[in-house]
Design goal:
heterodimer, A: seven-stranded mixed sheet, globular, B: mainly beta, six-stranded mixed sheet, four-stranded antiparallel sheet
Amino acid sequence: SAVISQKPSRDICQRGTSLTIQCQVDSQVTMMFWYRQQPGQSLTLIATANQGSEATYESGFVIDKFPISRPNLTFSTLTVSNMSPEDSSIYLCSVEIARGGYGYTFGSGTRLTVV
Amino acid sequence: AQTVTQSQPEMSVQEAETVTLSCTYDTSENNYYLFWYKQPPSRQMILVIRQEAYKQQNATENRFSVNFQKAAKSFSLKISDSQLGDTAMYFCAFMKQSGNQFYFGTGTSLTVIP
């Protein structure tokens, strides 16, 4: 399985500002995923990021709010833009190593609090 | 659309006892995978067990086993000989065989009591 380093692990931000979350993988992966876990809620997929193409966003998430970069096969960033308290969540990245569900690894998440 | 429902927000069990976590799902797919993930306070999502829908035999992983009822769209997790380290949030999840997106339930917070 892959090892994911996700940074920062937590942050407290002022409303109206932006935060960029980094996800570094120790091996090359084709597909990377960004999830949001709101307080007391489950994980919801924000977008899928493939290297060399635009990220694919799920319903309810837009690129202007959550721009994603995927410059190479081991790295991705998610930016939470123009933050409001409703953006306070845990954000997790995930990678697919093999199909069929066995080959997924999650990062340890970024706990974001917007004040 | 796929939905996953966990009707038990919180549960507790005495150490060494057995506990069962419930999960139901809704899908029109015939081929899919079902999962139980564990999320301890460290926030790391850890795969507990996986079931392929075409397999009738229930998956088992040491102290963890599932009761998969495809017709009823039910997928419960049984934890035997509960240990303190089992304390965590448990998420049931669904994935289409043809896809790569997880659909998670809302989770069950399990506390193992010494």
